[in-house]
Structures are given as structure tokens and as C-alpha cells.
Amino acid sequence: KSIILQTIKPYRWLILSAIVALLIYSSTMLTLPYLMKIVIDEIILSKDPQKDPYKLLMMVIGGYIVIYSIRMIFFYVSHFLTYYVSQKILFDIRKKLFQHLQRLSISFYHRYRTGKLISNVISDVATLQEMISTTMITVAVNVVLIVLYMITLFAINWKLAFICLSVTPFHFYNFLYFKKKILS
Prior knowledge:
- This protein is an all-alpha fold.
- It is 88% helix and 0% strand.
- The protein is elongated and about 90 Å long.
């Protein structure tokens, strides 16, 4: 088993909770365009004199406030749990590294400079921390949003969704083309 998987295992429920909070946070974003549709169709473009546009507008504004409140709560929960778990995992990794360094023989420390060794351990753990706490959160949020947007697109109009997806290969080709240009 990998040392990373062994270190993550005790925190699997917190990680799952962070993922659920992240899903709820991301999915609430999809309700906002529907509220905008109500504003445009039922308030701005409505010709029905029986409807009270101000009452409906106040309900939509209340909906926006509720949705943004829910979003901010789950944003806080997901980011708090993610950073908390990442700090606990990094603490456990540092502890295991320190225990390993203590078990090394004295002759090892005679061959390698202690300052360089400690510097390498600190910079490697800092790089791991950056990867876990920043990169993984960003990637997770973006992947969840892409999947939710695709599901919403197909639910609204599958023909339009296929048209939108038809340009995706061109984006990948464009990305790979410019990546080659930059790296060469």
C-alpha cells in the first residue's frame, strides 16, 4: 500500500463530506440562470395584467438571497474541510518523515549534509501541501462544474448540447497545438 493512501484512509469520511459539500455548492450555481429566466419571461416580457410583477420580483430576489446564502455556507464547509484534512494529512506525513529520519544511522548523516536534507524535506512537503490544498481543490471544483453543466445542457436541450460539444475536439487540438509551439 502507498504511504499516501495509508495516510488518507483515516480521513475518508471528512473527505467524502467535503466532496458532498462541494457538489452542493457547485450545483446551486445551476439554479441561478433559471431564476434569471423567470425574471425575463415572467416579469420583463409578460403582457398578462393579472400578474403582479413586483410580487414575483420580490420572490425571485428572495430566491437569489437564499441560494447565495446556501452557496456561501457550503463553500465555507467544503473549503474548511478540505484545508483541515489537507493539514492533518500533511502533519501525518511530516511525522512519518521525522520518525524515518530518526531511525537512520549516524553514518547516513555523515555522508549527507543535514541542512540540505532538512531543506529537501521541507520543500518537498511544501510542494505536496500546495498540490493537495490548492491544485486538487481547483481541479475538483472545475470537474464537478463541467459535469453539472453538461448534465444541465442535455436536460434543457440535447440538440444544442451536441452542437456545443461538437467544438470540443477543436479546443483540444488548439490546446495541444499551442502547447507544442510553446514547449518547442
